[in-house]
Amino acid sequence: xxxxxxxxxxxxxxxxxxxxxxxxxxxxxxxxxxxxxxxxxxxxxxxxxxxxxxxxxxxxxxxxxxxxxxxxxxxxxxxxxxxxxxxxxxxxxxxxxxxxxxxxxxxxxxxxxxxxxxxxxxxxxxxxxxxxxxxxxxxxxxxxxxxxxxxxxxxxxxxxxxxxxxxxxxxxxxxxxxxxxxxxxxxxxxxxxxxxxxxxxxxxxxxxxxxxxxxxxxxxxxxxxxxxxxxxxxxxxxxxxxxxxxxxx
Amino acid sequence: xxxxxxxxxxxxxxxxxxxxxxxxxxxxxxxxxxxxxxxxxxxxxxxxxxxxxxxxxxxxxxxxxxxxxxxxxxxxxxxxxxxxxxxxxxxxxxxxxxxxxxxxxxxxxxxxxxxxxxxxxxxxxxxxxxxxxxxxxxxxxxxxxxxxxxxxxxxxxxxxxxxxxxxxxxxxxxxxxxxxxxxxxxxxxxxxxxxxxxxxxxxxxxxxxxxxxxxxxxxxxxxxxxxxxxxxxxxxxxxxxxxxxxxxx
DNA sequence: AGGTTGATCTCGACT
DNA sequence: AGTCGAGGTCAACCT
Lengths: 249, 249
Description:
Organism (chains A, B): Deinococcus grandis
Number of strands of chain A: 16
Oligomer: homodimer
Distance between the termini of chain A: 59 Å
Helix content of chain A: 10-25%
Strand content of chain A: 35-45%
Radius of gyration of chain A: 26 Å
Number of helices of chain A: 5
Main location (chains A, B): cytoplasm
Protein name (chains A, B): Endonuclease NucS
Largest interface: A-B, 68 and 71 residues
Largest sheet of chain A: 8 strands, antiparallel
CATH architecture of the largest domain in chain A: Distorted Sandwich
Structural class of chain A: alpha+beta
Family (chains A, B): Belongs to the NucS endonuclease family.
EC number (chains A, B): 3.1.-.-
Order of helices and strands of chain A: EHEEEEEEEEHEEEEHEEHEH
């Protein structure tokens, strides 16, 4: 996994190291004093400072400072990566088109640089996504309201899709918007848009339900004012009742 | 800057290393085979695989795989960090309250671990934020429309704030919503909300203008259908004309 | 390639 | 502490 590592390399040694590994499906880690320029959707410059640089085999690049999960500068995926000598310093260029962006990293001093092989064989499982919540509630719509019948999932209406489209025991159409976390007023507005879109196409009464484990106070007020309903549902609804359901027929 | 680095340390040596540096205002970098559990707002597990681990002095932790800017697992800022031996493996615990979350990293094999001092003395400048755009357009509202007079910035109306509140040459009130990038339909709806809120309080006619460097086709259609206007403005409006303005008085 | 949505979003600012 | 909105959001999915 550890391919090669240098400590305090001279610029020429660093350049050779980078050129040997940059395009070799390798993950690079560099710690050192660095100066970063970015130009693209916005423009930024960072004066020289101690930073941690990460370059992954997909060409993505990130420059980390001493705080936070977010890099100080980054490039999601580069179409072109190169290393050159400029004024006695190694300079990394990371460019991409669409959007047209470039990050230039000038390495003033390198304390350590490492080439690694990060093979990605590992299984990854995430529980609690909105997609899982949607699946669970589509199977057990009574967790939202008794007598609800799900007609569709991800129904496209105008722009965007309705998480759950259903009919209640009274025959009303019901638009359900799901949020896996606490719902804010943006979720209420999103629901309002979908309800409006359905009302424009259907003559029968249409209800809007925001289903989430929690809701902010302002969002609840906005919902009530707009005639939309909020229903508290668990983020990980346990749908094990069906296993207990006796076979009736 | 480079404090200490070990290659292929045994678990006991790694544990000593981590305990010596974890709470020493130091940035840690670890490359190795690792297994990660996360529980909090969601739940995830990653089987053993080659990963790159980063721990910063603020307690933030991230586990990187071979692709993308985003870590596979992370923890934004921990209240509690600890390292222990469990079944012959070093295990890192990173916990925080609010939200209650925990990340557990089991180090199965460590190829390299490094302690770094990332002093943050570096100046960072970002140009092209929406705040800068707002300031520039407030000073030069003619870039949006001739004869516009800005009355207010970030005017609070109901929930949320109006980026720019103005009056046009005809005496109409104008609500301006700014976007630094391409505007989507969410921006149009946001503008619509604000316009509605102002109309409810003012008897004079109210216009809504979406000012952005670009707009998606669907968003433009929605805007036109709702009687809202789109004005193309540069993301970095150069307001140097005022320097050329002759002193009239 | 363009558009939309979700995210363990992160992060800062403000109440 | 809670809420809100921006972000160079990123990244996945769909048309």
